[in-house]
């Protein structure tokens, strides 16, 4: 069964003094997320990622289309008991301690009184804040608040999780921990739908991604498929601090870093380059076909509108 | 009542307590004890009248200020700070949120009024040396003040559900002032003619009739309050606050939380 079905969901705001000027935040979006997958919702700032998440959470109402989560309508309270949501740059009641906040949210989710304390302690450990339960949230750093945000999303053991920019505000260690947590959630059979503009996170985590720009879906597919196309180029890395003249003529680009040289050559030229490097007695470290990275795919999908925007301006 | 409304109400109460709202009790205590001591020294025979008048008026004004200034932020602050997102993404209906917030602030005001009432009775005991039967009507006046708070809280919540805190404060405070003179407005409406009559009558019935909830002067003069007035004021306050609350729910139900 599909965990999330988005059927032509769209949102247009009325702006201006008389509210007569339409501003399209999301064009009709069709998307299906399967149960148990980590789905990345990618796009630059202002692309419509947060609008989509707010529509799915019932925080804003769509101007068209519909969506179903776990087979239920988006405003169904029974469905809401089975989802968790981390908003972008979360802000919580800062007069509460982390423990009190989580207990409050557990009450709203209907977690049984006996289980509440145990769940709160468990999730605080899970997000790396085992000793912060008694500290008021106004004393928390941005990264700690982000961790509390993740804790409140997973508190009631939901089936589907929605994370809006979950790595935002986290240091490299924190980002690694969140990645690990998301993988653990997937292993437990949870569905994770997360928006991000950090492509390396999406590439390392997601089963599938969708790219959105100017409120329009630009591409969707499995990360492995999107990044597997070979570009007809080979990357050769060797030990050394110079580029032999005989090799330079065969490469399309090269970079020198410390005592390593990295060069990209067209397929078919690699034998000639290897021969030339051997003649110079340079040690070859690796030789790999160049594949499209998610970043390149992303930029390619965004480019047409940027070009069009350039023409318009 | 749904358990979620109770949880939202308790959290609203906790917020008010932690934001030191009840600190107003200190100012009230200073005011009432100062007044009692001063009245005891300068007035002869009207100590009770002055203490009851001053005490109950202070209870009313302190509470109205709290109801307006906290009530106007109950919804708008949650939207601005986005604390609402993690609440409404749970199995919480929008109407439950509004009703929970209302009961949370109403509860805060009841607790606040309870402590202020103790202050008023303590001051009264200080100046009169003993209680008398007519003092029990002070409890009715306090009950009416609580009813007034319910109306003001519901109105502040109504304005908070669609406008900025500043505008909400202006609207709610204006209605409080006009409502305090509602009887005068009705008298004017009955005397006016033509379009003015209709406009004044409409306005008189639209604004909350807070003047009928004000029995401070008669209670201070040891006059009893009719049982019929208690019943009609209770019904009026519940219906008016209920309607304002329904308005707040209707607006909030359709609002996009950008």
Structural overview:
- The complex is a heterodimer of chains A (313) and B (258).
- Helices cover 35% and strands 32% of the residues of chain A.
- Chain A has 313 residues and is α/β, with parallel strands linked by helices.
- In chain A, strands 6-7-8-3-9-10 form a six-stranded mixed beta sheet, with helices on both faces. Chain A has a four-stranded antiparallel beta sheet with strand order 2-1-4-5, covered by helices on one side.
- Residues 307-313 of chain A have low confidence and may be disordered.
- Chain B has 258 residues and is an all-alpha fold.
- Chain B has one domain (3-253).
- Chain B is built from twelve helices and no strands.
- Chain B has helices spanning 3-18, 24-42, 47-71, 76-80, 85-88, 94-128, 136-160, 165-180, 182-191, 194-206, 216-220, 227-253.
- In chain B, helix 2 (24-42) packs antiparallel against helix 3 and helix 7 (136-160) packs antiparallel against helix 8.
- The mean pLDDT of chain B is 92.
- Classes of the chains: A alpha/beta (313), B mainly alpha (258).
- The interface between A and B is medium-sized, with 30 and 26 residues.
């Amino acid at each position: 069964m599909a965990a999330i079905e988005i059927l032509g969901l769209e949102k247009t705001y009325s702006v201006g003094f008389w509210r007569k000027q339409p501003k399209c935040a999301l064009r009709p979006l069709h998307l299906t997320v399967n149960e148990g997958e980590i789905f990345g919702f990618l796009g630059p700032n202002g692309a419509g990622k947060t609008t989509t998440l707010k529509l799915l959470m019932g925080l804003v109402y769509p101007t068209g289309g519909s969506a179903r989560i776990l087979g239920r309508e988006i405003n169904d309270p029974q469905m809401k008991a089975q989802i968790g949501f981390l908003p972008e740059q979360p802000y919580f009641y800062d007069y509460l301690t982390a423990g009190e906040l989580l207990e409050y949210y557990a009450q709203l989710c209907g977690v049984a009184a006996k289980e509440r304390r145990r769940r709160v302690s468990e999730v605080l450990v899970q997000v790396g804040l085992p000793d912060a339960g008694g500290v008021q949230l106004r004393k928390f750093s941005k990264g700690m608040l982000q961790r509390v945000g993740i804790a409140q999303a997973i508190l009631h053991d939901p089936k589907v999780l929605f994370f809006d920019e979950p790595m935002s505000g986290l240091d490299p260690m924190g980002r690694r921990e969140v990645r690990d947590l998301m993988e653990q959630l997937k292993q437990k059979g949870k569905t994770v739908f997360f928006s991000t503009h950090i492509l390396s996170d999406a590439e390392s985590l997601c089963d599938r991604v969708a790219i959105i720009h100017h409120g329009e879906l630009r591409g969707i597919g499995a990360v492995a498929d999107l990044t597997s196309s070979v570009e007809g180029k080979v990357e050769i890395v060797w030990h050394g601090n110079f580029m032999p003249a005989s090799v330079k003529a065969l490469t399309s680009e090269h970079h020198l870093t410390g005592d390593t040289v990295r060069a990209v050559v067209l397929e078919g030229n690699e034998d000639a380059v290897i021969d030339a490097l051997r003649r110079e007695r340079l040690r070859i470290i690796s030789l790999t076909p160049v594949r499209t990275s998610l970043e390149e795919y992303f930029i390619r999908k965004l480019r047409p509108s940027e070009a069009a925007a350039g023409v318009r301006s | 009542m749904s358990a979620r409304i109770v949880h939202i109400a308790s959290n609203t109460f906790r917020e008010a307590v932690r934001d030191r709202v009840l600190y107003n009790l200190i100012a009230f205590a200073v005011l009432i004890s100062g007044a009692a001591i001063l009245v005891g020294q300068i007035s002869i025979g009207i100590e009770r009248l002055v203490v009851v008048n001053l005490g109950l008026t202070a209870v009313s004004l302190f509470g109205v200020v709290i109801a307006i200034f906290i009530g106007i932020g109950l919804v708008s602050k949650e939207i601005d700070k986005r604390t609402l997102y993690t609440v409404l993404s749970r199995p919480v209906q929008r109407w439950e949120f509004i009703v929970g917030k209302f009961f949370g602030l109403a509860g805060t005001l009841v607790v606040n009024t309870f402590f202020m009432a103790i202050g008023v009775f303590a001051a009264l005991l200080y100046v009169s040396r003993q209680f008398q039967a007519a003092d029990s009507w002070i409890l009715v006046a306090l009950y009416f003040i609580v009813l007034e708070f319910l109306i003001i809280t519901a109105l502040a919540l109504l304005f908070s559900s669609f406008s900025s805190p500043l505008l909400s404060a202006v609207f709610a405070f204006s209605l409080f002032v006009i409502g305090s003179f509602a009887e005068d407005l009705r008298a004017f409406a009955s005397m006016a003619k033509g379009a003015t009559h209709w406009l004044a009558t409409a306005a008189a019935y639209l604004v909350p009739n807070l003047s009928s909830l004000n029995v401070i002067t008669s209670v201070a003069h040891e006059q009893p309050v009719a049982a019929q007035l208690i019943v009609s004021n209770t019904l009026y306050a519940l219906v008016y606050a209920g309607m304002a609350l329904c308005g707040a729910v209707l607006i909030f139900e359709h609002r996009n939380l950008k």
